[in-house]
Design goal:
heterodimer, A: Helix Hairpins, B: 172 residues, mainly alpha, Four Helix Bundle (Hemerythrin (Met), subunit A), 2 domains, 73% helix
Chain lengths: 102, 172
Amino acid sequence: MISIELLLLVSAVMLFAGIYGFLTRKSTLAILLSIELMLNSADINFAVFNRMVYPNGHEGVFFAIFAIAIAAAESAIAIAIMINIYRQLKSISADKLTKMKW
Amino acid sequence: MNAQDIMFVVLAVFITLSALATVLSKSIVRAATYLLFVLLGTAGLYFLMGYTFLGSVQTMVYAGGVIVLYVFSILLTSGQQEELRQSTLQKVIAGSVITLIGIGIFVGVLWTHGFNPVELALSKPSESVITMDTIGTQMLSTDKGGFLLPFEAVSVLLLACIVAGLVIARKR
């Protein structure tokens, strides 16, 4: 019963939930949460294609591991930037961020 | 339906509902908690497919590390009592329309594409599709199918990330 389409449907729902959140949220931290959702659905796709279409190779697993490492690095840097912005502006709402340099 | 099908349905419903709750909930701490549930459900999917190492990495790095980082930074910046400000109705409608069109096209392509998957024999919990031994050997090999170069590139990236995090977030 578990078919490739059903597995990909789960990740598609996750991806578009992330896109919806990215478009409608105001707080930059909430936008980052949506980005994590989208990255996570891409990881699921790597694993699913590897398992269901090319079960003899292992590239999808390795790509997913590297993607997890890069996502962790990206969120650490993004959070450092958020904290810096909060120190300067006392707010992390996206519509208050109008200056690139201060 | 065997036990694995039931487990898949449970995980799929759990992931879908938590993903929707992540983007719809009012409080940002709750959104982070729902994201934790999404990531744990994803780890469950990896375990179901037999990728036990990937599932444990997902649990440790994402659920254990990144979510803690997020909760810390949420409490450092906005504070838990602050409600997320709502977008305007116009923006919500535009976002929903774009999302619905996108997911319609996406699912349509998925259903009509016709993948030719192998017959899926999900592994028993005792056996995994790819062993730790294979992962370790392939990660450090320079032969065909080896991943030494991306492995080193990621280590340099993590070093750069540590330095950049210190430089950006330090007090001036």
